[in-house]
């Protein structure tokens, strides 16, 4: 990992060139167009082209679900059930209710909360299997009252879906699972095919093709966010356990080569020790090649003069995951304004949030934590304003409305009020 001062890091961040996405966009738009025109046959074609699998059927069968249930074992199923309980308990507090207020003169105003009817969940495949992402994306939708939840995910080299993903889908209550990944899956969810009906919102993480496809279909369908590579930022002072810090940085580095592991520390001793501990731990990892590339390309150790400077730097980064491995993390929590999820202390590592604690692990990346939030129940509902005025109440404010409408030159608006006033005066 490269070691930098705060000023050097911020200069590097500013100088980083934006990825030229024109070639990627051209490929993604061709895939979307193909799916819109050819439907299922395009899904079969693109799956064979990109995944090397010739699909005999797009939908996962009931037998495949039964096979998956047997394959995963009782210990995994028990862990899955515990995760579901914790995720459900946390997200239940996010449920919103319709509300109404009654004012004088018979006026009623309010907000009606309605679940989105049909949602598509994308779960990545390829480098790893992500049953935890199934739970995190599906359970909030279930709690919101979504009527139908479907899931798409790339097939494995044997043409099947990971049994862990299928077991999680069954546990979470997914209605249907389809063996389709990449931009073609996003297009199918957005526009529909003979097998896959279109949805009204698409959620879930994915690679660059998935992210760009979500960007291009947005507007025809809602999306949760355009997620980038996974990120962790750890703020550590002299009280942090260096071996823990190294392990936590590696837990993100193993995601993929583009993952961003960052350490901000006020202690030169911590910086040096963590770097040594990373070297000692990395060779023990199954995904050490991926982790090493992530650390070399994107890993940074940033030396801050003070904790306030460390907090300011973290808020500028606005990371997906932020760990405060410092003295008095609760006392310093108000200093953090931009982060997807915040982990406090030496014994609250990021994987705790990924799997079992309960808060959602689908989080804003790429600095978008400055304006966006973790996935939640609120992402699966829509709100309608409700307005009721009786005749007398409308007549009481009619002149005000007419005056405002005329000031904007919208005389038909004014007339809509005037004719009711005239009828009342007659």
Automatic annotation (TrEMBL):
Essential cofactor(s): Zn(2+)
Active site feature: 320 (proton acceptor), 321 (proton acceptor)
A Gene Ontology biological process term: L-histidine biosynthetic process
Annotated positions binding NAD(+): 122, 184, 207
Enzyme class: oxidoreductase
Pathway(s) it belongs to: Amino-acid biosynthesis; L-histidine biosynthesis; L-histidine from 5-phospho-alpha-D-ribose 1-diphosphate: step 9/9
Binding site residues for substrate: 230, 252, 255, 321, 354, 408, 413
The organism's place on the tree of life at top rank: Bacteria
Cofactor binding description: Binds 1 zinc ion per subunit.
GO-annotated cellular components: cytosol
Keyword Metal-binding set for record: yes
Entry binding sites for Zn(2+): 252, 255, 354, 413
Entry annotated with the keyword Nucleotide-binding: no
Listed GO MF terms: histidinol dehydrogenase activity; NAD binding; zinc ion binding
SUPFAM superfamilies linked: ALDH-like
Coiled coil: none
EC number(s) recorded for this UniProt protein: 1.1.1.23
Keywords: Amino-acid biosynthesis, Histidine biosynthesis, Metal-binding, NAD, Oxidoreductase, Zinc
Catalytic activity: L-histidinol + 2 NAD(+) + H2O = L-histidine + 2 NADH + 3 H(+)
Family named by the database record: Belongs to the histidinol dehydrogenase family.
Functional description taken from the UniProt entry: Catalyzes the sequential NAD-dependent oxidations of L-histidinol to L-histidinaldehyde and then to L-histidine.
Protein name listed in UniProt: Histidinol dehydrogenase
Name of the gene: hisD
């Amino acid at each position: 990992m490269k070691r930098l001062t705060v000023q050097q890091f911020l200069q590097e961040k500013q100088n980083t060139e934006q990825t030229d996405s024109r070639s990627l966009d051209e490929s993604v738009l061709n895939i979307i167009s193909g799916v819109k025109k050819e439907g299922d046959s395009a899904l079969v074609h693109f799956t064979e082209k990109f995944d090397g699998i010739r699909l005999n059927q797009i939908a996962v069968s009931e037998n495949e679900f039964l096979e998956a249930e047997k394959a995963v074992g009782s210990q995994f199923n028990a862990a899955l059930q515990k995760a579901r309980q914790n995720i459900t308990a946390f997200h239940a507090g996010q449920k919103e209710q319709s509300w109404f207020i009654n004012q004088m003169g018979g006026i009623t105003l309010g907000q009606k909360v309605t679940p989105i009817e049909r949602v598509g969940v994308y779960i990545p495949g390829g480098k790893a299997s992500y049953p935890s992402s199934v739970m995190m994306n599906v359970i909030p939708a279930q709690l919101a009252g979504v009527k139908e939840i479907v899931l798409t995910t790339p097939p494995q080299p044997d043409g099947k879906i990971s049994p862990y993903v299928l077991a999680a889908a069954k546990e979470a209550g997914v209605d249907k699972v389809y063996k389709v990944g990449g931009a073609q899956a996003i297009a199918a969810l957005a526009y529909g095919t003979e097998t896959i009906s279109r949805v009204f919102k698409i959620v879930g993480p994915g690679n660059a093709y998935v992210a760009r496809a979500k960007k291009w279909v947005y507007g025809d369908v809602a999306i949760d966010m355009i997620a980038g590579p996974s990120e962790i930022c750890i703020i550590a002072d002299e009280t942090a356990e260096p071996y823990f810090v190294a392990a936590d940085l590696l837990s993100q580095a193993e995601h993929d080569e583009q993952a961003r592991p960052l350490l901000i520390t006020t202690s030169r001793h911590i910086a040096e020790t963590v770097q040594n501990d990373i070297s000692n731990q990395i060779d023990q990892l199954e995904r050490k090649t991926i982790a090493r590339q992530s650390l070399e390309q994107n890993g940074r150790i940033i030396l801050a003069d003070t904790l306030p400077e460390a907090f300011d730097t973290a808020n500028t980064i606005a990371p997906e995951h932020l760990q405060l491995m410092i003295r008095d993390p609760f006392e310093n929590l108000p200093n953090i304004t931009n982060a997807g999820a915040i982990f406090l202390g030496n014994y609250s590592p990021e994987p705790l949030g990924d799997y079992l604690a309960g808060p959602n692990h689908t989080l804003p990346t790429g600095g978008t934590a400055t304006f966006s939030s973790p996935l939640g129940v609120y992402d699966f509902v829509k709100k309608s304003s409700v307005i009721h005025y009786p005749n007398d109440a409308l007549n009481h404010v009619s002149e005000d409305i007419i005056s405002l409408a005329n000031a904007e030159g919208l005389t038909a608006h004014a007339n809509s009020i005037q004719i009711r006033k005239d009828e009342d005066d007659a």
